[in-house]
Design a protein that fits this description.
The chain contains 4 helices and 4 strands. With 127 residues, it is α/β, with parallel strands linked by helices. Strands 2-1-3-4 form a 4-stranded parallel beta sheet. α4 links the parallel β3 and β4. 35% of the residues are buried.
C-alpha cells in the first residue's frame, strides 16, 4: 500500500480497518512499526508492560508493536508501517516483518524503496 513515509501510519490504520471489514479477526492482525511507535501501542503501554504483553499472548485484539519486537510473535496477518526512506533499511524491515507473518504481509509506506528486491509493489508477499 504505497504512501509517503509521513502517511504510512494512517495507511496502515486504513488497512487494518479494511482487513477487519473483510472478516479477519482482530486477534489475527499484528501491526509493526519501523519508525515511531503507533499511538495505540503507546496508549496500551501506559497501563504497564505486563498488561501490554499479556495482550499479545491473549491474541484477542489487534496487537501493535515496534519492528524491533524481542518477543516471539506470529499472527496470520502482519501490517508493516514502513517509514524507511532508504532501500537497505526498507528491505530489512520487510524481511523482519515477514518472519512474524503466517499468511499475509501488507506493507504500508515507502514501497518504492523495495524496487528490485524480492518484494514487488502490489503483489502479495508470501509469509
Amino acid at each position: 500500500m504505497p504512501a509517503a513515509p509521513e502517511n504510512a501510519l494512517a495507511q496502515a490504520d486504513q488497512t487494518v480497518d479494511q482487513l477487519l471489514e473483510s472478516g479477519r479477526e482482530p486477534g489475527d492482525i499484528l501491526v509493526l512499526t519501523s519508525g515511531r511507535p503507533h499511538p495505540w501501542q503507546q496508549h496500551e503501554l501506559s497501563f504497564g508492560e505486563g498488561r501490554y504483553w499479556a495482550q499479545l499472548a491473549e491474541a484477542s485484539d489487534v496487537f501493535y508493536a515496534d519492528l524491533a519486537l524481542t518477543r516471539p510473535a506470529r499472527r496470520e496477518v502482519v501490517v508493516l508501517v514502513l517509514e524507511a526512506t532508504e532501500p537497505g533499511p526498507a528491505v530489512l524491515a520487510v524481511e523482519q516483518a515477514r518472519s512474524h507473518a503466517v499468511a499475509l504481509l501488507v506493507v504500508c509506506g515507502a514501497t518504492a524503496q523495495l524496487a528490485g528486491a524480492a518484494v514487488v509493489e502490489g503483489q502479495p508477499v508470501p509469509a
